Amino acid sequence: MPGRAKTGLLRMLPLGMAAAATYYLWRPFKVRRKAAPTAPASEAMLAIDSEQSIVHANAAAAALFGSTPEAMRGMPLGHFILRDLRSLDSNLPFLDIGQQLRLTGRRATDATLMGRKVDGAMFPLEGSLTASTGHEGAVDTVLVRDISARKQVHEQLARSFAQLRELSSALQTIREEERKHIARELHDDLGQLLATLRVDLTLARQHADMTAPLLRLLHEMDGLLVTAISSLRRIASNLRPRALDEGGLYFALQTLRHDFLLRQAVHFELMADEGDLVLDDERSTAIYRIVQEALTNIARHAEASHITIALHRIDSMLSITIQDDGKGITDRDLEKAASLGLLGMRERVWGLNGSIQIGADSELGGTRIDIMLPMHAITSSP
Questions:
Q1: pLDDT tens digits for 202-222?
Q2: What's this model's pTM, rounded to 2 decimal places?
Q3: Is-contact 91 78, C-beta < 8 A?
């Protein structure tokens, strides 16, 4: 029992020594109770009472707000830290200062509090409620920090990120235009040339003077021409599917499904209404490429036996869901820097101001991709 031990010790000492011992034993508790809140000299600190009036401000806090500790004493906290930007009334107290301070400082964009200097200049800040004591009523200690530099860096990063996204979107557009041009050139020029050669070869085979060896040679040449024409069509289709230009997105997706089933023995459901997929070329191309990339990933990695792709209009949004029952994707796979296919899908979606979520599928047990794309016109940001 600490109290009894001290009392017994005092009874054993002479009167003068007992008085001195009493002073030194109880002095730390008195000093601790009367001590004012302190903080490192470099950190701005304000002590406020239960009415949120400033009872103490250190030199760092005074310099932060462009004042002096003496001038700040007795001022309401709301004069220097604004509770609500919609009202500059310094008499409005914080409804829950602890809660509002905890909501700031996580990121530069979370700085809901603004500081106001004596000259009226505003600056973003973050703060925290760190201590309280019962000496002469409740006194709370508030530590505040100016985050102007941090917020400026965050805004610069945000601008750089927006510029990179615009650049990525522009490069995607240029790439698709080049693909379309090359595919058209291959089909219209080289394709027509090969088709003409095959017609001429057929006419030559019908000539009466043909010998058996020459007929065999012409037959082999015809086979090579057929192979060349098929390869040309495949290459041109990979560059830019003609179904996308001739039949629209719905027909192009049906063709993509048919070609996929020729290579993969899976159950493949494509659920869509042709009327929902009458879109402009930019959106049609982006959606086609997203589905194409998803199917490529499924064929390479998923080992799936069931695939479902659903496209539906929901008000002014187009919902796209891609599911498979394969191995499933992990968080580690999503974070790989080399996952360029997933990155390309995200960039296409973000370029259309849409949202995309990629993760495990609770229904089929594999991977699920959920995409929401706005169907209204896209306005480019300044």
A1: 888 887 677 888 888 888 888
A2: 0.59
A3: yes
